[in-house]
Amino acid sequence: MTGTEPDRELFDAAKQTIDPSENRRRALDGLAAEWDRAWDNPYYGRRFQDAGLTRDTFPDLDDIPRTTKDDLRADVQANPPFGTHRSVTLDNARRVGTSTGTTGKPWLQLWTERDMAAAIDVRMQYLWRAGMRPGGRFAHSWPTGMYSTGVLAGRDFLQAGIMEIPCGLPTTAKDIETHLDLWELLSPTGFMLTGSQVQIYDAAAKELGKDLQSLFGGASLLIVEALYQFEGPRKRFEEEFGVRAHNITGASEVPAFSINDCRHHSGMHVPIGHHLIQVVDPVTGTEVPNGVRGNLVINAFGLDAFYMRYDVEDIVVAEEGPCPCGETGQRYTFIGRGADRAEVDGQKILPLDIQLALFDFDSPEFQLKPGPCDAVQLKVESDESSGATKLAGDIGERIGVPVEVETIPVGSLPRSSFKPRRTA
User: Fold this and answer.
1) H or E, element range at 119
2) Each residue's pLDDT tens digit, 351-407
3) Looking at the structure, do residues 27 and 161 belong to the same domain, yes or no?
4) Residue 302 and residue 331 in contact, taking contact as beta carbons nearer than 8 Å
5) What is the 3-state secondary structure (H, E, C) of 377-419?
6) Residues 134, 31 share a domain
7) The domain spanning residue 89 has which CATH number?
8) Domain boundary among 251, 271, 291
9) Beta carbons within 8 Å of 216's beta carbon, 6+ residues apart
């Protein structure tokens, strides 16, 4: 970033404004090359052959069987210690990392030098999109060490000319106080936090006689909290804490898949160059129209790590139309993880649906019980235990299915030191 004009809209317009039809053509050409490579892999070659496909013909994407992380876990279990699916091995890996294990056992990731370089290239766009500029200071409360945050070991911030302030998780009262003191001392111009972490820091700041809005100081805040993709909740959050909020998501196991929105908040920007996403029906695997909920499927090309028709089982909605920022890549809105949904009368209800329904009730914390049920089961923090029936009726009216609410005292649900968990 050093030496660039700080007020331009995009970090690299030449890479970020490719005509959508040309972008898709390049992606499909890249995936055709990946298709040929797949047949040399024992896992994917057998999987695709069993589906009646051949090496000589690159099929329509919808005809390629999807792969989930559970499929890959089963391969590792059957063929320890690394499975047969990996295209990056100990011989060519230069860095190892893991996922956090939010939805299961942490997943081992092997990174090559080329994939790390691709990730850094995308991070330049990502940080610029979020308002970070050379000379800035960026504080994050992400796990480091083996977690994917630490894979780049600060190379992205170094290349961007930004000071990294890696605070780590706000696990103990002393940790939290130290982080707040650091922010007061260093005045970060950008932060990366989860919604749960913001609650933790806000409560601690009040106890310590500090003001979190003052500590944020009008900075950019990248936040993991699906609610703030929507204008009303985001504006209320920005006014409360005096920040410029940006939403973030991604798939840590897929190199260079770092996703955030721009200042226009028109959806999460998928970086151009290594990924083609699909939003598919979770049962049939066929693409659904823009604006319809479906599973996020990632197709990667031009990387050493191989991911084709990789269903991360996140529920998303593909966005359409040009973004005012000028980026021309794919965009989507993140709705939630498929495993977190409750199902009532064929309707799938996710924690985000409950958050949006509760927004007019000052967004109390809650827990949803996932799985099939006759009525959505909720625990909602409230000081008015007698209001459970009315609250259930109001939420049910908003989401269109029966709801049962148990009110519990404010503060009784746990606040995660990392990603919020709103399922019981």
Assistant:
1) helix 113-129
2) 999 999 999 999 999 999 999 999 999 999 998 877 899 999 999 999 999 999 999
3) yes
4) no
5) EEEEECCCHHHHHHHHHHHHHHHCCCEEEEEECCCCCCCCCCC
6) yes
7) 3.40.50.12780
8) 271
9) 183, 191, 241, 242, 243
